[in-house]
Amino acid sequence: MLQKWITSIGLDIGTSTTKLIVSKLLIANQQNQFTLPGCQIIDRRVTYASSIYTTPMLNDVEIDVQRLTVLLEQEYKNAGISLDQVEAGAVIITGETARKQNAEGIVHYLAEHAGDFVVATAGADLEGILAAKGSGAIERSAETNAVIANIDVGGGTANIALCQNGKVIETFTLHVGGRLIRLNSDGFVTYISPYLTEFLKNNSLILREGEKATFEKLSSICQLLAEETVNYVKALNQNSSLLVSPHTRSSIHPETIMVSGGVGAMMEKQKPKTVKEVAIHGDVGPLLAYHFQSIQVSQAAETTRATVIGAGMQNTEVSGSTVYIGSKRLPLKNIPIVEIPVQQEEKWNPQLFQERARASCMQASTIFSAEDPPAAIALSHFPYCSYKMLQELAKIISDEFIACFKGAKFLVVLCEQDIAKALGQALAKQRKELEIICLDQIDFTHGDYIDLGLPVAGEAISVSVKTLAFSS
């Protein structure tokens, strides 16, 4: 069995902070005469964690690319690695920073100049999923079979993910963060986020830029923000003026609530008692952290670095004995994977599968960008498939994909077993306007990214499944 260590980095550029992680990943090639080639990660070690920096900004809406590049180059030197050593990883721009004017350009610039990256400008939903993975919430839900909520509270937003059986089942985001109110050392308010205006007004609280804030008023605001967040997470409230985007709260009640992010990291500290102690970082983060702690939610195992505690691993394999390639656009890179279980019941039920397909595609349409293909549909829990079932499956997949991704011209479908050619042909008949690629024998996890290479042997193509690799 051939083995190789690779270097992987993760870079998280957030609303208030930026941090870097370097990992060593041991990749093993387990090819033998009886199986198709396949590689997997068998060991991982976080070898370097940078200091946590204030995200460099030129102004309120523009990230300072030059200072960010200098910072990254210095951290590479500190970690003892060079650009040509980096073979995998993730550049993730999160929170309010993802909406800054040049965020998209930065993530691609860094990816091109710093290694072979999964490139993701993380929207609020994706950020919540990554944080839940890094904080340990997803793993804990798999171990306990309980519904675990992770609230990742940073500078500008609280990204929430509900996890069950090792998967994220619901995501939403609130305008709750430490830097939505900023103060100088004397307690004068230098900034109030416009997202708080309606919330403060509804709670009869007035705070203005330029005024000297009292400890009591700041404490009342932070208490209300923490309570509003937790009550919405617990489904005690069905709506909130702090929601980043419209969301219909399900009736699912989490059994455990964990808090990660920069605010989560401060929960273990003593309660600030004066405005000067509150404003130690120029914002209300320490006071917000105290009020989360006071309503008996737990601090996550990993907090500040939850979103980027790992850096990326690549699982390269070949697909496969049956494939359907109805496109000439190969190779393709960084397609997010959306898993849909085919059969969770004793018998095939097309109506229940359609409900799962619709929910998964709708969630994916809010998480990922509008690139084509927007996502790869990965079919798991796939039993024996009759001709009738195959036709029903193809119709449902194509209908729900087109309904959620209007304008998409390209559909990628992944299967765990050898049915890709027949399914690909059925999909092509259903939607002649779609380019179809259907692959078999793919080992995937929801939230992975996939690269599709050129054909390597007959119809078989090289496939690289890339997973954000989090430390345990």
TrEMBL record:
<dbReference type="InterPro" id="IPR009377">
    <property type="entry name" value="EutA"/>
</dbReference>
<dbReference type="InterPro" id="IPR043129">
    <property type="entry name" value="ATPase_NBD"/>
</dbReference>
<protein>
    <submittedName>
        <fullName>Ethanolamine utilization protein</fullName>
    </submittedName>
</protein>
<dbReference type="Pfam" id="PF06277">
    <property type="entry name" value="EutA"/>
</dbReference>
<dbReference type="InterPro" id="IPR050696">
    <property type="entry name" value="FtsA/MreB"/>
</dbReference>
